[in-house]
Amino acid sequence: MTGPHTAPKIFEAFDHSSDPALRARHFGEWDRLREVEGSFGSSLNPDRTVWFLLRYADIHTALQDYELFSSSSVIPFTDEAHHWIPEEIDPPEHNKYRRILNPAFSPQVVAGMEGAIRVACADLIDGLTGAAGCDVIADFSRQFPTRIFMRIMGLPVERADELLEMVHNLMHTNPTDDPDGAIRGGAMMAIYGLLTEIFHSRRAAPHDDLMTTLVQAEVDGRPLSDDELRETGFLLYMAGLDTVAGAIGYVIKHLAENPDQQRAVRERPASIPAVVEEALRMYSIVTTSRVVTRDVEFAGCPMKAGDRIVVPTASANRDPAAFEDATTFDADRTVNRHIAFGAGPHRCLGSHLARAELRIALEEWHARVPRYRLDPDATITEHIGGVAGLDSLRVTWG
């Protein structure tokens, strides 16, 4: 199942959200750790070991085995007072909540949204081309998917900048900068407050949006409780306002650094779906966690019930045991079974929407902006942790 392994090392204070080497070269450092360690543990939390699985086979197996690796908590180092729905619920209960959400993100529904998505994308890009360049992250990759997802959920689009700041403070403030959790805790409470306000308004006046779907939904013949509504809305809010933004940033950076591939995208727009898949594989951004349910040896690690595993898709999808020339960007790759959207029952609910947004972003970007390159005077930094991304990406035209 997991292949031969040597005894794993235990690092005393390793935290993937703040590790200096990961912050300096995110993907390259996962590659190094996978090849040197394969799997390892962190004793940062004195109450449990947090095990890092880095090989594709181990991660793929773990994500599918919800009986051994429970999703009851996706926070590896601390115990937080939340229960995100449906992410932190295992089957069969998970299926009841997932069925409520699936229709809103089906391939048919996403296809029907394509015209509106394309118009929103084109309008954003047209507003950028009059200058000599832009910050792809601030001016495009955060704004574009946010506008789309806020409309789907029924969030106030006019408050987009405020809502994006809440997400950033919650997901990308590392413990070093926020030792007492005040920044993250404040952002979380602000998000919960906003969602509660909107759910109450939808009960009184239903709209054609996902928030209304949730307040009208039933599980086991009863409406969702206020807590269930908040936890479901919170999870959707975080996922919809952050993940696609991160993916767009990495693929635009790659194409800015590789002018031949950028030219190929312009000249062969039909190749863009394959470029999207290879970018999802090469620059996977999600790192999630699971709870070990019983004592077991897995991936060479002597796990105890209550331990956590951390599974970075960035490491799995660049594993040479699973992909030929794994660290080479190959848009003509014929077999690309990446797990950028996860695997098993918790595979990403919004994968169809994410693929559509990424494809349209590349199509409209390369149809509208001139040739672009990285601004040589700009410094590029990343945030890591649960969802990785670039903090900024200055490009210039020409």
Can you tell me about this structure?
Strand 9 and strand 10 form a beta hairpin. With 398 residues, the protein is α+β, with helices and mostly antiparallel strands. It starts with 8 loop residues before the first strand and ends with a strand. The longest helix is centred in the middle third of the chain and has 23 residues. It has one domain: Orthogonal Bundle (Cytochrome p450).
Q: How many angstroms separate the termini?
A: 51 Å
Number of domains: 1
Overall mean pLDDT stands at 93
User: Can you tell me the residue ranges where pLDDT is under 50 for at least 5 consecutive residues?
Assistant: none
Strand order of the largest sheet: 1-2-3-11-8-4
Biggest sheet overview: 6 strands, mixed
In CATH, the topology is named Cytochrome p450
Question: Which CATH class?
Answer: Mainly Alpha
CATH superfamily: Cytochrome P450
What is the CA-atom radius of gyration, in angstroms? 21 Å
Structural category is: alpha+beta
Give the amount of beta strand, in percent: 5-15%
SS summary, helix count: 16
Number of strands: 15
Fraction of residues in H or I helices: 40-55%
